[in-house]
Amino acid sequence: MIGELGQLLLILAVVAAAVQAWGGIGPKAQPRLVLLAGLWQVAGVLGAIVLLAVAFVNFDFSILYVAQNSHTTLPLLYRITAVWGGHEGSMLLWLAALALWSLAALRGLYRHDAIYAARVLGVLGLVSVGMGAFVLLTSNPFMRLLPAPPEGMSLNPLLQDPGMAAHPPLLYLGYVGAAVPFAMTLAALWRGAPAPWVRWVRPYTAVALFFLSLGIAVGSWWAYYELGWGGWWFWDPVENASLMPWLALAALLHVQIARDLHGRFAYWTAALSIAAFVLSLLGTFLVRSGVLVSVHAFASDPRRGIMMLALIAVTLLGSLALVAMHGKRLLPARAAKAAGLLSRDTALALNNLLLVAACGCVLLGTLYPLAMDALQLGKISVGAPYFDAVMTPVLLPSLALLMVSIWLRWGRDEGRALLRRLAPTLAALVVGAVALPLLLSREYGAAHPLVVVALLGALGVVVSTLHWAALRLRGGGLGASGFGMALAHLGVAAFVVGVAMVKGYGVERDVSMAPGDTVALGDCALRFDSVGQASGPNYDAQTGHFTLRCGEQAPRALVSEKRSYVNSGMPLTESAIDWGLTRDIYVALSAPVDEAAGAWGLRVQHKPFVRWIWLGVLGMGAGALSAALARRRGRAGRHNAPAGA
Fold this sequence. Notes:
Layout lengths: L1 H24 L5 H27 L6 H6 L6 H6 L5 H23 L4 H25 L23 H16 L1 H13 L5 H30 L10 H26 L3 H23 L13 H25 L17 H31 L9 H22 L9 H30 L4 H26 L4 H27 L1 E7 L4 E4 L2 E12 L3 E12 L5 E10 L6 E3 L1 E4 L3 E12 L4 E10 L2 H18 L4 H7 L6
Antiparallel strand pairs: 1-9, 2-3, 3-4, 4-5, 5-6, 7-8, 8-9
Helix pairs in contact: 1-2, 1-6, 2-5, 2-6, 5-6, 5-7, 6-8, 6-12, 7-9, 8-9, 8-11, 9-10, 9-18, 10-11, 10-13, 11-12, 13-14, 14-16, 15-16, 16-17, 17-18
């Protein structure tokens, strides 16, 4: 009965979403009808995903999706997370995330303006209808398999990890959260909106950016320690699919602050709201259509790709048509005064141009190979060399903007006064330009120019931000907005340090070692001790035991595993990592090379400051959340002003 009841709940949710859409965007907004339909829609979707989880926990192999992604030896944690371990369940998770965001919008907006809230929920209802129809028609997770097999096929071993248990829900909460700014923008275009609507939308944008940052960080960390290759970002097209909406949401949050406080960037706000959601749909298409071969991609049914492309086309064309017809409704009641060339407004515009350019570069590098293949013009691969070449000149100038923009006044500023405020930062840059090459040469043997430039940029951001924060604290306190902005900027600096040091000084070696052999990594020596056996609830493993000695520190034992899971011919590597704030020592088993001698191929790596990458991403997400959740306009305006303003 679970399968039939789950399917009925999904149908109920789609019908309720259709009523919700009609009540919100029909000839007359009906807040009570939208409220009731929205609650039924949320109950239907969440009830369906709970029933699917129950089917997994109870080994109900009469449901095809459960039989394909579970096994009686699968631990309980992974039986629950197997709900989103395949295509059908992940799309149901997408719907559940949309239901939660609809509930948040319902709760948050009705207390401000019931009519406008109904229109926003109407747009979200349309999105729910489209995605619900996609699930029911092409990706139903409750299809029956009769007769039921006695055993399931088990979950993909790559997904049997705590990181991958958390990664999809966090990522989808970020992805799907872009639907709320999109819906609020379209509602404003369709029938107009109260004056403070941009202030109301900022928390939703910030929370979506926070969850997307968290999801990307967890996924990157999982790839680092789980896949056995030691990389934190591979420029996989599906990784790019999560980066593009992140860049769009980051740009959107900045322009929303300026639009709210000073009435600027009205059209930027609309364009970025639409772009962030369309890019989220594009990411869903890339993962779920089967056009990519990736550890992230699960579906290969052409119908799914065609239907998802149709949803993207309707969303984009309909949104642009509304902008063309009613774009003036987005403009503030009072036109903003013209900004000077030297002003925070100009710096913000340049920053957003850089973020949009970065997003465009990623989009081009992701879609160009697919377009070439679709047009039968040949198969090409666009990888790290392209992205490193195009992203570096786009993103490095943003560090200079971060140093300066925090001190600029809105509207117009004066050059000499700005130089006085920047004096400590400029002094730090002069000292850093002399000291950094010397320190890098002494520690790593050479000072790579690009690494020095990146570290100087990070140093300037840190000094400028801390100086600004110290003056704010002395003058009365940072507040949530100022604290969030400082945290986000420091997160950017930490991220840059991590990326620059790993790119410039990371050591990666593939070696063959037998028990008793030793390899040098930086100031450490790694000895291969022995090979053993281990087992888990649903896997057997060969284990490599190592001893790491670093200087005067006590020796440390490391264990790497090569696992073979039930019903899977794909071995999985569990790396061994000795980590610290300034470096990681990484070792992973590859394959036996001489069984008689017990020799194995190993991947050993020395990664300086790699942890700073994930700390930086988390800092950016948490900072954005704190800054945008400052509730009172006066507080936000006061703490975004430079010292002396």
